[in-house]
Amino acid sequence: MTTEQVRWLEAHIGAAPPALRSRILERALAQLPADDLALGLARTGEQLLREVEQHPGDRRTALDLLAADALITLSLLAQAELTPGGLDDFAVEVLRATSGAA
């Protein structure tokens, strides 16, 4: 993850509760590639969602579920801001990737 990407992400999660903000940053910093912010956020969110699915009904995964939702939402926002012309196709791709999840 580049410094610019970290700044973008921090600017967009600044109002989130501290625990959620921390979980989003923790996952993003560990997994995001430097080349494609939107795709990286989507993939990170998808991976986290799959991890949550492995523990159905476990309330301890609530924060991870919120973080997964936020990461996928942020991926759409990043795509809309950085490459708006590709948002439709990107959204369809994200939907396909997550349709098996949750």
Q: In a nutshell, what does this entry contain?
A:
The protein is an all-alpha fold and 102 residues long. Helices cover 75% and strands 0% of the residues.
Describe the structure.
The protein is mainly alpha-helical and 102 residues long. It has one domain (3-99). The protein has helices at residues 3-13, 18-31, 37-53, 62-82, 87-99. The longest helix is centred in the last third of the chain and has 21 residues, at 62-82. The protein is globular and about 40 Å long. The model has no long low-confidence stretch (mean pLDDT 89).
Characteristic terms for this protein:
102 residues, mainly alpha, 5 helices, globular
Topology of helices and strands:
Blueprint: H1 3-13, H2 18-31, H3 37-53, H4 62-82, H5 87-99
**Order of helical and strand elements:** HHHHH
Largest sheet: none
| Radius of gyration over all CA atoms, rounded | 13 Å
Strand pairing plus helix content: what structural class?
Answer: mainly alpha
Structural domain count:
1
- Count of helices? 5
Distance between the termini: 27 Å
* Overall pLDDT level: 89
* Relative helix content: over 70%
Say how many strands there are.
0
